[in-house]
Design a protein that fits this description.
Length: 253
């Protein structure tokens, strides 16, 4: 069998160096990693931003036409929206659908939470929590989950944003339906932190139950003391062990 591929879809404020840690996990399993970090801010302004960001990799996978096995490893809701854009693009052509059918394993880290959004205020709260680490990093204070004044202001601003950029909001909120319609029927592994305030564990567990009810082969690995997209730093050995065992099982199946 040809050497497999690993596609990593990063969280909104991820850096290349951060994703390199996860790329090495896949390289150790003889998978060829490719990372894409969809631009959250571009997606907030333009509904076509996520499809444009994923179009090159969708075209690349379609050219291969499913010739080698693929593992997808996505992070947070940013990666989940990117996943929806990729699936929609692959579904448009026969080669793309063959590439989708070559996806043998999907790993979701700290995702999804977007599907459980309950109205404009809840969406604004989640957005504010998601953007605070990026703002705090720009301010030289590291990646903080909350900042007095700043986090509430981000929430207020996002309420107003939703009234102006309705098409972008609809595009993001449509991601869960697109994923459920087009996702491959391969095994899925959900990794999530019990201390995640951005994507609460109850939302992930509810999505897991929904996928199992739909007949999907689902495994999950909760990390008791971990926060959003901080599972690997919390327990690298356990994270590596869970990912390795899952991928080997999926590729051998």
């Amino acid at each position: 069998m040809s050497r497999g591929r690993a596609l990593l879809l990063g969280w909104g404020n991820a850096t290349r160096s951060q994703l390199a840690v996860y790329e090495r996990l896949h390289t150790a399993l003889d998978l060829e990693p490719t990372s894409v970090i969809p631009d959250t801010l571009a997606g907030l302004r333009r509904p076509e931003a996520y499809p444009r960001a994923l179009a090159p990799i969708a075209a690349d996978l379609a050219r291969e036409g499913g010739d080698r096995p693929i593992v997808v490893h996505l992070f947070s809701d940013n990666g989940f929206v990117g996943w929806a854009a990729l699936l929609a693009a692959l579904a448009e052509t026969d080669p793309g659908r063959r590439a989708r059918d070559a996806i043998r394993a999907v790993i979701l880290d700290s995702s999804p939470g977007l599907w459980a959004v309950r109205g404009k205020m809840d969406f604004a709260r989640r957005f504010a929590l998601g953007m605070t680490p990026a703002v705090s990093r720009l301010a030289g204070r590291g990646a903080l989950e909350r900042m007095p004044i700043v986090t509430p202001l981000l929430g207020v601003g996002f309420v107003a944003y939703q009234l102006v950029f309705r098409r972008s909001v609809r595009a993001m909120l449509s991601a869960p339906a697109i994923v459920e319609q087009h996702q491959p029927r391969c095994p899925h592994l959900f990794l999530y932190g019990e201390e995640d305030v951005l994507v609460p564990p109850r939302d992930v567990r509810a999505w897991i139950a929904r996928q199992r009810a739909g007949g999907l082969d689902v495994s999950d690995e909760p990390f008791a003391n971990a926060r959003h997209v901080a599972l690997y730093p919390n327990d690298p050995r356990r994270y590596r062990r869970a990912v390795n065992a899952f991928i080997l099982r999926a590729l051998d199946g």
